[in-house]
Amino acid sequence: EVQLVESGGGLVQPGRSLTLSCAASGFTFRHFVMHWFRQAPTKGLEWVASISPSGGDAYYRDSVKGRFTISRDDAKTTLYLQMDSLRSEDTATYYCAKHSDYFDYWGQGVMVAVSS
Amino acid sequence: EVVLTQSPTTMAASPGEKITITCRASSSVSYMYWYQQKSGASPKPWIYETSKLASGVPDRFSGSGSGTSYSFTIRSMETEDAATYYCHQWSSFPWTFGGGTKLELK
Questions:
Q1: Are A14 and A112 in contact (CB under 8 A)?
Q2: Is B17 exposed, middle or buried (0-12, 13-18, 19+ CB in 10 A)?
Q3: B44 interfaces chain A, CB cutoff of 8 Å
Q4: Residue B11 and residue B23: Cα distance in Å, rounded?
């Protein structure tokens, strides 16, 4: 059974950092593109970042470029999102997702609140 | 950025009623994808490559369209279909979602 379990969220002050983790199991993690999405309270879905199977290629939405870093540890089958210089507009539930022909499995989400 | 505009944003349907949601793209996309999200839960894949049903999705659901105009249909509304549905494109970066259509049971 495929499982994606996010962790690392919480309340953080503006300008501070936070690192999210997504522990994957039930599939050959190293073979798949992985993604982070987010959803602000009562809002729609937003793609945040993606990383290739090798980890050699990473893509970001403009609003997080230079502040967020997506990475993966294939030995630990874990996806990460390091978030620096956090802003109030980064407040959201963050989801990791696996990619096949579509985003076929999503984690349960982890909440990040940026507030002073 | 490809902007996806869904309509309606909210709607209510009775059991057995036919439902159609539209998604218009600001520029042409190759395929449209649809996700279902229920309150407090993570999104689930529903329709991929415009018209293919994701695993486990009942065949009362269908999708169609091309270019900049796509639609999502429920042939006969059932109680369990009440949810928010999002269209999505990954033809071009940044990948974008529509604003969602909240479908409620009447």
A1: no
A2: middle
A3: yes
A4: 15
3-state secondary structure of A31: helix
Q: Please tell me which of the candidates B43, B54, B55 has its beta carbon nearest to residue A45.
A: B43
- From B23's Cα to the closest Cα of chain A, the distance in A is 14
Q: Return d(Cα A22, Cα A36) in angstroms, integer.
A: 9
Tokens at B99, concatenated = 């604003």
* pLDDT tens digits, one per residue of A21-53: 999 999 999 999 999 999 999 899 999 999 999
pLDDT tens for chain B, 106 residues: list them. 999 999 999 999 999 999 999 999 999 999 999 999 999 999 999 999 999 999 999 999 999 999 999 999 999 999 999 999 999 999 998 999 999 999 999 9
